[in-house]
């Protein structure tokens, strides 16, 4: 993308993120017109003391290698930078590989000698250039490089962008594995598994760090925890600690450094959570190499912008703009800056579902998310009442993502997964957990473990999904998860309140978290996406066992899926690949045979990514700019965009009076809410403002 065009697009994005009135689709639609206001009808009352929500808090990213952030965390990264958020990225290894900074393929660079320190320095130079380009539009914008001692007894390089000092890069400079999956004991994997007592450093040729060092496993965890304590982020981004394995050859679906680096980050976040003087934080995990096997997520314009930063990192023009003898970027990436199709996608590996809000007794709302490794909840007693929270439930190690449900007697239940790090490497596991109120509106009982369908971590890296939850007329709960073999499993509650073994329900190549809904006839539906379609399990009658998996013949999706009851059927909501446009189809049960599927229609919400939430005629999701947006079902294909970036997915509910209430967890780890009243024209909902749910 030419630099001038990229600047125009970034300027437009910055306008949405940092200026204009919340609730307006800036740039694309301009300001709300008088006709819009007249058609909208009465406004939802708002508390004047609470200002409109904007992007707040701070972000700390932890990645294994230079470029993991550019491939797998963008466009979230650039949008955080443009919003003025304090962003720090920590690189665990130097990414020295074979030490040869040479482009292959059609570029055919001259042969280069191996120089691990110089190649690692060139990769640093490329990252600094890309971040400077994101933040200032000038890849040569200056950095201040310093050395600091770490909590693990070593040293780290800290780079501060002079023009935008809220942008920091931290280089821990541990050695990388040097292979995607081969057995390399001198690596983070070897250190985690106890095969080596300590892992050494690989200093870059230009680093201000002058003394080599080694880290034991505990020292490495302490070092990362110390970086978290230094910056005190409200959002922690990391890679996927449980990426799974390919069923045919048993190989990990991601780079071993990505997986084990994320486990070190998990352990560090758990240690950091014990620090007293810090804000609440949430965690967002990102999918890695597996993106290349799945449909494209991002729209063409976003891809073009993302690719521009990768080309800056890859030093495509070979001009010595950085003044470093090591080179100004990573020429290995120059041969294919799109990666293995990674430039077209960005996915969350956990927490991308919309089932974390439920209505309890007498219209009381309960919202659940994970803060500081604990399940947290917020509650609101009625439409005119204020939200209260967050209350952190006892028990640590809870993973991002929550599924909530209300039992027939009015009690609220919540399910999630919990990572147990264990004393030994082989003790690492992820299990499903369940908590329920002792009485309606009462306290939550202790967590109950449902165990895991996995025999051992080594079998599939504990790669189970977040659970979907269904409640029968008798109040019994059933949890559904995707296991590491990418099939559907279920555990049903027993008469004594415990849960039975994990039953096998079949399916193959399941990618999404499963979703569930019950139709008007009382039949339970369960759905999951694959790389190419959606599959279904449906009860032929309310008391019957689930049948399936049934093919739906639906087209490919970007993976996240939402299901809502719709008359005699269940309506599915998903995004179109290479576009982000929201689509929908109605699924109707057909007894013991495959269900009837309606024609797929465009539902609204042009571009964007991630799961969408639906309440009545209102869609909520991540808009083209990455901010929280709303759109009318069947209305114009556009978003009413806020000025707020958020983590995970939105959740929404249709209240008895007809208002659609939608919530998100902001990058500030705070709950934000908006309510939209029904109008005479359902395709033109009221434009309301996002507000913090809790008074400061």
TrEMBL record:
Q: Does the keyword Signal apply?
A: yes
Record-linked Pfam families: PIG-L
Protein name as it appears in the record: PIG-L family deacetylase
- Residues annotated as signal peptide: 1-26
For the region Disordered, what residue ranges are annotated? 487-511, 676-696
What UniProt keywords are attached to this protein's entry? Signal, Zinc
The superkingdom listed in its UniProt entry is Bacteria
Q: Tell me the InterPro entries matching this sequence.
A: GlcNAc_PI_deacetylase-related (IPR003737), LmbE-like_dom_sf (IPR024078)
């Amino acid at each position: 993308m030419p630099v001038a065009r990229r600047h125009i697009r970034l300027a437009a994005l910055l306008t949405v993120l940092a200026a204009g009135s919340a609730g307006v689709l800036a740039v694309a639609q301009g300001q709300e017109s008088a006709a819009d206001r007249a058609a909208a009808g009465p406004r939802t009352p708002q508390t004047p003391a609470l200002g409109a929500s904007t992007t707040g808090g701070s972000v700390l990213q932890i990645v294994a290698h230079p470029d993991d952030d550019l491939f797998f965390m963008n466009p979230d990264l650039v949008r955080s930078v443009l919003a003025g958020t304090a962003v720090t990225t920590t690189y665990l290894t130097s990414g020295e590989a074979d030490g040869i900074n040479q482009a292959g393929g059609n570029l055919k660079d001259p042969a280069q000698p191996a120089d691990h320190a110089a190649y690692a320095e060139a990769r640093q130079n490329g990252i600094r250039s890309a971040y400077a380009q994101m933040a200032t539009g000038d890849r040569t914008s200056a950095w201040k490089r310093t050395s600091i001692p770490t909590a693990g007894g070593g040293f780290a390089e800290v780079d501060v962008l002079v023009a935008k000092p809220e942008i920091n890069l931290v280089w821990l400079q541990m050695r990388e594995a040097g292979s995607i999956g081969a057995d390399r004991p001198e690596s983070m994997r070897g250190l985690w598994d106890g095969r080596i007592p300590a892992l050494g450093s690989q200093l870059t040729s230009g680093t201000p760090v002058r003394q080599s060092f080694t880290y034991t496993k505990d020292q490495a965890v302490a070092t990362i925890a110390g970086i978290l304590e230094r910056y005190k982020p409200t959002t922690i981004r990391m890679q996927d600690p449980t990426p799974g394995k390919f069923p045919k050859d048993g190989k990990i679906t991601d780079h071993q450094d990505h997986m084990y680096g994320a486990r070190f980050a998990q352990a560090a976040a758990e240690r950091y959570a014990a620090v007293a003087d810090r804000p609440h934080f949430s965690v967002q995990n990102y999918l890695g190499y597996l993106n290349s096997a799945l449909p494209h997520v991002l729209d063409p314009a976003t891809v073009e912008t993302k690719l521009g930063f990768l080309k800056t990192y890859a030093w495509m023009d070979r001009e010595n703009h950085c003044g470093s003898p090591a080179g100004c970027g990573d020429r290995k990436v120059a041969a294919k800056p799109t990666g293995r199709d990674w430039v077209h996608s960005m996915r969350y590996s956990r927490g991308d579902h919309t089932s974390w809000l439920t209505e309890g007794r007498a219209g009381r709302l309960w919202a659940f998310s994970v803060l500081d490794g604990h399940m947290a909840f917020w509650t609101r007693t009625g439409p005119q009442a204020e939200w209260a929270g967050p209350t952190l439930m006892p028990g640590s190690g809870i993973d991002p993502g929550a599924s909530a449900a209300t039992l027939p007697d009015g009690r609220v239940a919540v399910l999630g997964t919990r990572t147990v790090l264990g004393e030994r490497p082989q003790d690492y596991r992820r299990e499903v957990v369940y908590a329920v109120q002792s009485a309606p509106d009462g306290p939550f009982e202790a967590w109950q473990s449902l165990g895991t369908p996995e025999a051992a971590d080594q079998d599939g890296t504990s790669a189970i999904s977040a659970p979907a939850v269904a409640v029968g007329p008798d109040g019994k709960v059933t949890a559904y998860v995707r296991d590491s073999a990418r099939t559907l499993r279920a555990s049903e509650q027993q008469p004594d309140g415990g849960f039975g073994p994990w039953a096998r329900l079949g399916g193959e190549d399941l990618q999404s978290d499963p979703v569930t809904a019950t139709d008007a006839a009382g039949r339970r539906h369960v759905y999951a996406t694959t790389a190419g379609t959606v599959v279904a399990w449906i009860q032929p009658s309310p008391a019957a066992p689930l049948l399936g998996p049934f093919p739906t013949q639906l087209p490919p999706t970007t993976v996240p899926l939402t299901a809502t009851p719709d008359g005699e059927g269940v309506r599915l909501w998903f995004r179109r690949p290479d576009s982000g446009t929201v689509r929908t189809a109605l699924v109707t049960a057909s007894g013991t045979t495959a269900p009837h599927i309606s024609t797929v229609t465009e539902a609204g919400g042009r571009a964007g990514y991630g799961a969408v939430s639906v309440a009545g005629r209102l869609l909520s999701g991540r808009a083209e700019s990455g901010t929280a947006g709303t759109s009318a079902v069947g209305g114009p294909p556009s978003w009413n965009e806020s000025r707020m970036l958020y983590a995970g997915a939105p959740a929404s509910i249709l209240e008895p009076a007809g208002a659609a209430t939608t919530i998100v967890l902001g990058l500030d780890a705070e709950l934000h809410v908006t309510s939209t009243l029904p109008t005479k024209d359902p395709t033109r909902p009221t434009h309301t403002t996002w507000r913090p749910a809790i008074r400061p």
